[in-house]
């Protein structure tokens, strides 16, 4: 780095299991972006980055021209794994110090850091409609889906589930089956209910697809009753991460939501014995995956699909499948369905 210059660093956790903490020896980091959203530019000594999450920070080269460690270490693990890189000033005269900066301890610190993240509403191009102008706190919730993750054995094999349903992929891709009008031959909608069953240890293995209403404004609650940190990603949408708290979720917890400037993002962490709440408008037609970002959990069933169909069947809402798209399963030899129109 050149002394006096300011640099942008982007940290993304593309791992398979662990949250990490990142920090730069002798320097602070000004947070400017989370998953595509401008943030209020708070300054941090270190940042927790959970699975699937990305953060952009500004770092000013305002220290003595030496070599400094950039440190990444695992969080919430019995054995802490640490990796380092070296950031050198131009004309550096050697290492600043061999002592690595320490990471914070415990998940309460991480929760408080999450609460400090705020959307920068002055830099995010407000538009003249309720969603685009970011008045999401004034939109009526039309549906609440509460999801509880669990683990158990089925026929002697480990499976992970959401509300007692462990997803498996059928031979025919879900969207193809729906597009060709043969969904009822491939999977059943809404095996997963909006409220978790009393006994979440009872696990059913099946394609996991829920029906959702186009353009509804929904609330999804992730409740983690386990002892490890979870991370969830919603494809096809950004959502407002309005709350994370310890304990169990109840409707009266809504009074603690951030309904003004929560970050618009697509991944949310859930701490042990805690819950997280997100809100989003289902205005993107398609078949969208909501999945655990822990690779083993996703592979062994901790995911579900949200089917959002536009009743207009219009190209304004969803494109046709390309004519040269490879077909498989039970739709392989079927004629192409009537295309959507403008």
Automatic annotation (TrEMBL):
Pfam families: Cu-oxidase, Cu-oxidase_2. SUPFAM superfamilies: Cupredoxins. The keyword GTP-binding does not apply. Signal peptide: none annotated. Residues 2-92, 172-310 form the Plastocyanin-like domain. It comes from the Eukaryota. Gene3D superfamilies: Cupredoxins - blue copper proteins. Keywords: Glycoprotein. The keyword Oxidoreductase does not apply. InterPro entries: Cu-oxidase_2nd, Cu-oxidase_C, Cu-oxidase_fam, Cupredoxin. Belongs to the multicopper oxidase family. This is SKU5 similar 12.
